[in-house]
Model the fold of this input.
Amino acid sequence: MKGKIFTVDEANRMLPLVTRIADDIVATYADVDHALKAYEAAKIEAEREPANAGQLRRSDAEVGDVLDRFQGLVQEMEALGGTVKDYEQGFVDFYGDVGGEIVYLCWTRGETAISHWHRLDEGFAKRRDLPAVQAAA
Done:
């Protein structure tokens, strides 16, 4: 494990910024998918008709640009101490402490506060409500 251990309050204070970054990650991930599909189509077309190689080069450049944007957003989230666990839904985990155990405090887009956690070896499907004392901290 590497990273800051957040209190629920610390993580919640970051949510306005985390929300904006997570929204951008989800949107940019969709752009990556679109750019990759366009690249594959351009590749097939260039193989069929070599005169269309210019479109393949443009598609290749677009893939590079959108991947750079995507990677920058992921790095921005990581710099805050969050780990994006799902690029399509925007699940984000932060290291936290629940009852003396290092866990993930988990959040997803649409939630107004961090109110769930799961063990490090578990995923979103196993998330649990934070204890009342912890959630109020």
